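chain below, 65 aa
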Amino acid sequence: MGAAKKLGHGVYRGPSVLKEIVYGISLGLAAGLLWKMHHWNNQRRTKEFYDLLEKDEITVVVEDE
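prediction:
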């Protein structure tokens, strides 16, 4: 009985290559999406700025007093 394997203890088989690939792709897509959302936000803010300039609602020229 001393040489019998205990139940409930799994044998470590090393990293799963397929799991690692899926995790890497998932993290890459998540980081890419966050980066893309950041650029979309900057693009939107720039477009709003130039739209306001065209409508003469704002100006970049400092007025003399």
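The mean pLDDT is 88. DSSP finds one helix and no strands in the chain.
thats it, cya
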